[in-house]
């Protein structure tokens, strides 16, 4: 099934299942190391404060507690504070926490010109070797380890033809090409997905990209 982003209903997903998924609402969500060494989340958790997830009208923020070390967001160290988006990976006290967004199923792929050459719609690297680089999507874009891949990822075991990206109007169609593990869209595992402005897609644990559509707000779906 194809999926599309919903920006509401952010939640935290704990990679090692230490905690059940936790829905994020406006306010502060404390993360502590409990006496048994496990992570605790919420006002009732007792232990050494490691960090706080803070949700307000501006977005979701990670605040690192004084003296805490070794916290990373998308592989980059955070010492005090970081603004988070759906799909970000927070590594905290040996645990990966994914910021996930809800999504809705789509019955069909919307029609659109797959070869629209508007250069303003891009996939911008926010993690891995392509960090900061923008890839235009005026033609289908192959992701893989193959020499002819436009987004080339040479990680061990990465498929030669992992996925392909195609324009569909002001959205981007992600099609899996038989990769072993698929991709993550806003922190959720998918095979095929329809991406909108502000969506984050991760092809492995390091290589992350953000869809940029300059005339749309990243906080809402396109009409």
What does this structure look like?
- With 223 residues, the protein is mainly β.
- It folds into two domains: 10-101, Tumour Suppressor Smad4, CATH 2.60.200.20; 122-212, Sandwich (Tumour Suppressor Smad4).
- Helix content is 0%, strand content 45%.
- It has no helices and 24 strands.
- The protein has a six-stranded antiparallel β-sheet, with no helix packed on it.
- A hairpin with a 2-residue loop joins strand 20 (183-185) and strand 21.
- It is elongated, with a radius of gyration of 18 Å.
- It starts with a strand and ends in an 11-residue tail after the last strand.
CATH architecture of the largest domain: Sandwich
Structural class: mainly beta
By DSSP (H or I, 4+ residues per run), the number of helices equals: 0
| Share in helix | under 10%
CATH topology of the largest domain: Tumour Suppressor Smad4
Low-confidence stretches: 3-7, 219-223
Shape: elongated
Could you give the distance between the termini?
Answer: 21 Å
Give the CATH class of the largest domain. Mainly Beta
Instruction: Give the C-alpha Rg.
Output: 18 Å
Number of strands: 24
Features:
single chain, 223 residues, mainly beta, Tumour Suppressor Smad4, six-stranded antiparallel beta sheet, elongated, disordered N terminus, disordered C terminus
What would a concise description of this structure say?
The protein is an all-beta fold.
Produce the secondary structure layout:
Elements: E1 2-5, E2 11-14, E3 22-23, E4 27-33, E5 39-41, E6 48-56, E7 59-64, E8 72-73, E9 76-77, E10 81-84, E11 89-92, E12 95-100, E13 103-106, E14 122-127, E15 134-136, E16 141-144, E17 151-152, E18 163-168, E19 171-176, E20 183-185, E21 188-190, E22 193-195, E23 200-202, E24 208-212
Parallel strand pairs: 16-17
Antiparallel strand pairs: 1-13, 2-3, 2-12, 4-5, 4-6, 6-7, 7-10, 8-9, 8-11, 11-12, 14-15, 14-24, 16-18, 18-19, 19-22, 20-21, 20-23, 23-24
